[in-house]
Fold:
Amino acid sequence: MSVIRRNFAEDRRVCDAASHGPWLVAEGISTQIRQPNVSNRRRIVLPPDANGINDARFIAEAREGWPAALAEIERLRGVLERMDDRKSPMMPRSAMAHLAREALDYGT
Structure:
């Protein structure tokens, strides 16, 4: 199985260029993804079926969730950089363990 690598910097540019969030899902005769209190020109309309509703929820949640995930990736990469023994060969294992716990405990 090959590993697909994402360009997180490009993903960040895509997020930054998109209309600001949060986005909401409005269900009715169609499923719409929109910003609160914004005109119709910022709406995405999907079919009102189960797939359209699920897709709308995913898109709306991704507007806030993907930037948060990218920030977490950046934070964890910083922790890993500090743990890299090629850059800090004298770092004691206890310090590495402390950094690992710090990274893992952040999200809980």
Q: What stands out?
A: The two ends are 31 Å apart (CA to CA). The longest helix spans residues 50-83. The chain has one domain: 8-106. The chain has a mean pLDDT of 79.
